[in-house]
Design brief:
With about 600 residues, this protein is α+β, with helices and mostly antiparallel strands. Helices cover about 50% and strands about 15% of the residues. The N terminus and C terminus are likely disordered.
C-alpha cells in the first residue's frame, strides 16, 4: 500500500519536475516566508520548491513559560526517497502556558527546489518574535458572561499579528503562496489494492471457516435471497464501522507523528513486528485471542436478525485479528504515514467491503464454500511471505547494503519453502510451483553472495547491466579525504571533482543513480579528474564552511592547489553534467 502511494506520488513529482529547471537564485531565508497568524507559525515557499516534513520544528529556547507544537498538517506529496513534503505554505499550530512579553520562537525547516538542478538546503533555523498574548493557551478561551455581541464579533475576527523575523523583514501576507491541494494520483489503484487485500484477508484460516457458520448464526442462510442479502449487507456494514474507525484513528495519529513515521526509531520496530507476524503465518507459533475473550465476542449463537448481524460484524474484526492483523497492519502503517483522515477512513471502508464479498455471496445465495485444506494453509503461508517482504522493504533505506541483501535472502529462501521446494511434484501445477521455488532458491543464493560482498567489501561474482552501474557509480572514487585527493591530483596533473552529499538528500541519490554511472561522464572523470565524495553534513562538517556549502548536492571542480574552478548545484542530467565538466558554462546553465 505505502509502496504504491510513494511510487505514484514520486512519479507525479518527477513528471512535473521534468518540464522545468530549478531556480538557481533561490535563497533558503529570503525566499521562505515566515509569519505568525491566528495561533500558527506559517512557513511558505514559492512555486517550484517544497518543505520537508521531517525537519519542521517550532521551539522556545529561553524565557519563562512553556511552548508546545501542535499536530503537523498532512503532507501534500512525497519526494524521491518517500519523505513527506509540503508545497505552498504550511501552518504549524502552537500553544503556550505561562508566557509573557515578547516570545522568541525558533522555527526550523528544510526547503528544497524542484526540477533539473534542484537542491535540498540544510535545515534552516530562524527566530520569530511573537507577543505572548497572541499565542493561544492549552485550552480554548471562554468569553465572560458580560461580553457584548460586538465584543464577541471582534474576538472572532482578530487583527493580523505583527511578527518580526531576526535579520529578515517580515513577509507581507499578500502574495504568500497558497497551500497546494492534496493530490492522490493513485487513489483508484490504491483503493483497488486495498479491496483485493480485504478479499485476501477473508481467505485466511481465521476468517474463511467462520463465514458459513457466521451466516447461519445471523439467520442469513435459508431465509430467501432478499433477506439473506440484507442480513449480509448489515453484517458487512458492522465490519465497515470497525475497520473505518481504525483507519480514521491511524490517519489522525499519522498527522501527529508524521515525520517520526519515517525515522528508524519507528520503522525498525514496525518491521520486526511484521517479521513476527510472518513467522506466525508460516506456522512457527500461533497468535490467538484468549479463549474466554473469543467466547464472549462470539456470544451464545443466538444473534439472529439485523441487530445480531450488525453486532457480529462489529466483533469479526477482533475475532479475525490473528490472521487479518498482518494484512491490515500493513495498510494502517501506510495510512498513518500519509496522515489524511478522509483517505484513511475510505481505505479501511473499502478493505471491509473486500473482506465482505464472500459473506455477501454465502448469505445471499446460500453458497457452499470449498472445504479448508492444504490450499488454505498454502494461502496463509503466501500471505506470510508478502508480510515478510513488506518488513524488508520498510527498512530498505535505513540499513546497510549487506543487511538489505541479508533480509531479501531470507525472504527468497522462505519463498522457496512456501512454494514447495522440498515437496514432491505430481502434476503440472506442482511442477510449476516447484520451478518457482527453485528460482527463488537461486535468487536467494545470489543475494547471499552479494551480502558477503557488501559486508567484506570484496567482489566474488561479476556484475553487469544495472547492477554494474550501481556498483561502479563511485568505483575508484575517494571518500571524505579531500586532502589526499588534492595531493593525488597535483601529482597526476588533474583536477579534483568534489561531490558534496548528505544521507537525507533525495537529489544526491538521483545524481548517483542517473548521472555518475553514465559512460561519457565516467570517461571524462577517469581521464581528467580525481573524484571524491564528501558528506559535509555528518562526516566532514569542518569542510562545510571552507567549501561554502549552502545546499545539497553541490559538485565542485578544484585545481591541484585547491582553488575552485567552478561549481554546479543540484541534480544535473548526464549531458548537462558533461557540459559543466568540460567547462561549457553556457550549456551548463
Amino acid at each position: 500500500m505505502r509502496a504504491l502511494n510513494s511510487f505514484l506520488l514520486s512519479l507525479t513529482l518527477a513528471v512535473t519536475a521534468w518540464a522545468q529547471r530549478a531556480d538557481p537564485s533561490f535563497d533558503p531565508v529570503k525566499d521562505v516566508s515566515l509569519r505568525f497568524e491566528k495561533g500558527s507559525v506559517v512557513v511558505g515557499v514559492p512555486s517550484g520548491a517544497h518543505l520537508k516534513a521531517a525537519f519542521m520544528e517550532v521551539v522556545k529556547k529561553e524565557g519563562s513559560g512553556t511552548l508546545k507544537m501542535g499536530k503537523l498538517p498532512p503532507t501534500t506529496a512525497k519526494d524521491e526517497i518517500g519523505d513527506g513534503i509540503w508545497h505552498g505554505q504550511v501552518k504549524v499550530p502552537v500553544s503556550g502556558e505561562g508566557l509573557s512579553g515578547a516570545v522568541k520562537l525558533q522555527v526550523t525547516y528544510q526547503p528544497c527546489t524542484e526540477g533539473e538542478g534542484g537542491v535540498c538546503y540544510p535545515p534552516t533555523t530562524r527566530t520569530l518574535e511573537v507577543k505572548a498574548a497572541d499565542i493561544p493557551g492549552p485550552k480554548a478561551a471562554v468569553l465572560p458572561a458580560g461580553n457584548t455581541p460586538e465584543a464577541a464579533k471582534a474576538e472572532a475576527q482578530p487583527a493580523p499579528v505583527s511578527a518580526t523575523v531576526s535579520g529578515v523583514p517580515p513577509s507581507p501576507a499578500p502574495g504568500t503562496p497558497t497551500p497546494a491541494s492534496p493530490s492522490h494520483p493513485g487513489l483508484i489503484w490504491s483503493l483497488l489494492l486495498v479491496f483485493l487485500a480485504g478479499m485476501g484477508a477473508s481467505l485466511t484460516p481465521c476468517v474463511y471457516p467462520m463465514i458459513p457458520i457466521t451466516m447461519a448464526i445471523v439467520g442469513a442462510k435459508g431465509g430467501g435471497k432478499a433477506r439473506g442479502f440484507a442480513l449480509s449487507a448489515v453484517l458487512v456494514l458492522g465490519m465497515a464501522v470497525t475497520y473505518t474507525t481504525l483507519g480514521v484513528l491511524a490517519a489522525k495519529s499519522g498527522a501527529a507523528f508524521g515525520a517520526f513515521a519515517q525515522k528508524p526509531a519507528f520503522l525498525i520496530p514496525v518491521s520486526l513486528l511484521f517479521a513476527a507476524f510472518a513467522l506466525s503465518l508460516f506456522g512457527a507459533f500461533e497468535i490467538a485471542l484468549p479463549p474466554s475473550l473469543a467466547m464472549k465476542l462470539q456470544g451464545d449463537g443466538s444473534r439472529k436478525g439485523f441487530g445480531g448481524a450488525f453486532l457480529m460484524g462489529l466483533v469479526l474484526g477482533p475475532l479475525s485479528a490473528p490472521c487479518v492483523g498482518p494484512v491490515i497492519g500493513a495498510v494502517l502503517v501506510g495510512i498513518a504515514q500519509q496522515g489524511i483522515v478522509w483517505l484513511g477512513g475510505l481505505q479501511l471502508f473499502v478493505f471491509s467491503l473486500g473482506m465482505g464479498v464472500l459473506f455477501l455471496a454465502v448469505g445471499t445465495f446460500s453458497a457452499g464454500l470449498p472445504k479448508s485444506g492444504e490450499w488454505l494453509t498454502r494461502f496463509k503461508q503466501i500471505m506470510g511471505l508478502i508480510v515478510l517482504g513488506f518488513a524488508a522493504w520498510n527498512v530498505r533505506l535505513i540499513v546497510p547494503a549487506w543487511a538489505n541483501d541479508a533480509m531479501w535472502t531470507f525472504v527468497m529462501l522462505a519463498g522457496s519453502a512456501v512454494f514447495g521446494l522440498f515437496e514432491a511434484a505430481d502434476d503440472m501445477v506442482g511442477q510449476f510451483r516447484k520451478a518457482l521455488a527453485i528460482l527463488m532458491l537461486v535468487l536467494g543464493a545470489l543475494l547471499s553472495v552479494r551480502m558477503v560482498e557488501s559486508f567484506l567489501s570484496v567482489e566474488l561474482l561479476p556484475r553487469g547491466g544495472a547492477a554494474a552501474a550501481a556498483k561502479e557509480e563511485h568505483g575508484g572514487w575517494m571518500e571524505q579525504d579531500l586532502e589526499g585527493a588534492l595531493a593525488k591530483a597535483k601529482a597526476e596533473h588533474k583536477v579534483v571533482l568534489v561531490d558534496i552529499y548528505a544521507e537525507w538528500c533525495a537529489q544526491c541519490k538521483e545524481l548517483d543513480e542517473k548521472t555518475w554511472p553514465e559512460a561519457g561522464v565516467k570517461q571524462w572523470l577517469a581521464q581528467n579528474a580525481v573524484a571524491i565524495r564528501i558528506d559535509t553534513d555528518a562526516k566532514r562538517k569542518d569542510l562545510a564552511a571552507k567549501l561554502q556549502i549552502r545546499s545539497y548536492p553541490t559538485v565542485i571542480l578544484l585545481d591541484g592547489e585547491g582553488r575552485e574552478l567552478r561549481r554546479s548545484l543540484g541534480f544535473q542530467k548526464p549531458e548537462t553534467m558533461k557540459a559543466f565538466l568540460q567547462g561549457n558554462a553556457e550549456a551548463a546553465r
